[in-house]
Amino acid sequence: MKLICIGRNYTEHIKELENEKPSSPVLFLKPDTAILLKKQPFFIPDFSEDVHHEVEVLVKINRVGKHIDKKFAHKYYNEIGLGIDFTARDLQAQLKAKGLPWEKAKAFDGAAVVGNWLSVDTVKNVNDINFSLQNNNSIVQQGNTSHMLWKIDELIEYVSKYFTLKIGDIIFTGTPSGVGKVVANDKLKGFIEDKEMFSITVK
């Protein structure tokens, strides 16, 4: 299985990092070794002094597909979730400045939090989901999937042009504004609407 991540999918997040608005989705991958093991803390890696949280709605693929038309994309998932794309921002900036790939800053061990899953049948509209991240019981990020530049079905259509989607693959759909640095002893909790989807401690 693979983790397919979407960058720059919320306008306000693009602004806060002073990036250019893309004309098509920005794609990058994380290996399955990036997934933080259940009930394990997130350990800040020793190669970064500026790791940021990025909360994201997740989509789990439930069938194999290639060149999926947007109008059929909804058939390729029946669960959504919430997670964190941890980013070594200082390392990412160094790599971007040299025109190099981001993987060392995005795909390191533990860099992907995958929380609990919800059946799409329990969600009124996947394109109108409120979600948020708390750090030490204070909301630091909140968003709604209606604000995505490219909605979930559009992302599935786009991603499947380049990568065959397989059962168990997870799409990280992008983060809203409010990304920020984590430090030791932070307690991060993610919510879809009022449902807690994950809770982790930073070490």
TrEMBL record:
Species this protein is from: Wocania arenilitoris
Domain Fumarylacetoacetase-like C-terminal: 2-198
MF (Gene Ontology): acetylpyruvate hydrolase activity; metal ion binding
Annotated InterPro entries: Fumarylacetoacetase-like_C, Fumarylacetoacetase_C_sf
Alphabetized UniProt keyword annotations: Hydrolase, Metal-binding
Identification of the protein by name: Fumarylacetoacetate hydrolase family protein
